[in-house]
Amino acid sequence: MAASWSARMKEQLVISGALGYLGLWIGLPVFQLATAGLIYEGRNPALVPYAVVGTATSTLVFTMLYNVGQTLDTERLRGTLIGLFLAPAPRIAWLTGFALAGAFETSLAAASTVGFGMLVFGVRFDVDWPALLVSLGLLLLGLWGLGFVFSAIGLWSRRSNDVSNLVSPVMLLLGSVYYPITALPLWLRLPARALPLSYGVQALVEASLHHRPLSTLTAKIIPLAGFAVLLPLAGIAAFRWVEHGARRRGDLDLY
Amino acid sequence: MIPSESLQGNEVAWALSVTLATGRAFLTRMSAYLIQFVRWPLGPLLIFAVWRVMYGASGRTVVGGASLSGFLVTGIFGSVLLSSSIWTSGYAIEWERDEGTSGSLFLSPASRAAVIAGYGLGSFVWFLPCFIMVTLLGVATGATLNIGSMAAAALGALAMVTASLSMGFTLAGLFILSRRGNLIANVMQPPLLLLGGFAVPIARLPLSVRWISNGLPITHALEAFRPAVLTGAGLATTGRELALSFGVSAAYVVAGLLALRRVEHVARRLGQLDLY
Amino acid sequence: MSEALLPDEPAIEAHNLRRLYWRRSRPFARRQEVEAVKDISLTVRRGMIFGMLGPNGAGKTTTIKMLSTLLTPTAGTARVAGYDVVRDDRAVRRSLGVVLGGDRGLYGKLSARDNLIYFGHLYGMRSAAIRTAVAEKLELVGLTERAGDRVEGYSRGMKQRLHLAKALLHDPPILILDEPTIGLDPAAAMDLRREIAALAPTHTVLLTTHDMTEADALCEQIAIVDRGLIVAQGTPEQLKARVAARRRVIVAVEALNGRAPAVASAFAAIPEVTVSGPEYDADGAAQWSLMCVDTTQALDAALSALRTQGVGVRTIRVIEPSLEDAFLAVAGRSFE
Ligand SMILES: Nc1ncnc2c1ncn2[C@@H]1O[C@H](COP(=O)(O)OP(=O)(O)OP(=O)(O)O)[C@@H](O)[C@H]1O
Ligand SMILES: [Mg+2]
Question: Domain locations in chain A?
Answer without folding.
Answer: 2-254
